Amino acid sequence: MKRLLAVLALAMVFAGCAIAHFGQTQNAQTQQDHTRIMGGKVTDSGGHPISGAVVYLKNTKSLVVKTSVTKKDGNYQFSQLSPNVDYEVYAEKDGNKSATKTLSAFDNRKIANISLRINLNK
Predict the structure, then answer these.
(1) Does 82 lie in the same domain as 60?
(2) Are residues 69 and 12 in the same domain?
(3) For a surface tag, which of 24, 50, 76, 118 has the fewest beta carbons within 10 Å of its beta carbon?
(4) How do residues 72-98 score in pLDDT, each as one tens digit?
């Protein structure tokens, strides 16, 4: 009888571990499926791409700021963004700043394209 109880207890521990692992895997997969991406191009007033501009992305809920540097073609990208948060984004180059734009939690796009324009001083 003691042996049977010990075997049942051990089986319950293994089953609990398996269920917990499955739940964590499912939760991670669900979180990954429910993220979004923001990207775009930073250009000057003439529409030419600006490389090396710093793009600032602020989570308006946590106030955490992420940055990205534009590539030669002026493109930037932020991934794994929460769909339930508003984000503010702007770009800066050589002391010049673009207007700040907002990606709202009500915007249901999985991939948001937000272009930014900086008026560079000559």
Answers:
(1) yes
(2) no
(3) 24
(4) 999 999 999 999 999 999 999 999 999
Characterise 27 by phi-psi region: left (phi > 0), alpha (psi -120 to 50), beta (else).
alpha
- Domain of residue 27 covers 1-33
CB–CB of 44/119 below 8 Å? Answer: yes
Both 56 and 26 in one domain: the answer is no
Task: Give the SS3 label for residue 64.
Answer: coil
Q: Where are the beta strands (DSSP E) in the chain?
A: 36-43, 54-59, 65-69, 75-81, 87-93, 96-97, 101-103, 111-113, 116-117
31-76 pLDDT tens trace = 445 899 999 999 999 999 999 999 999 999 999 999 999 999 999 9
pTM greater than the 0.85 cutoff = no
State residue 120's pLDDT score: 87
Contact 91, 55 (CB under 8 A): yes
SS3 8: helix
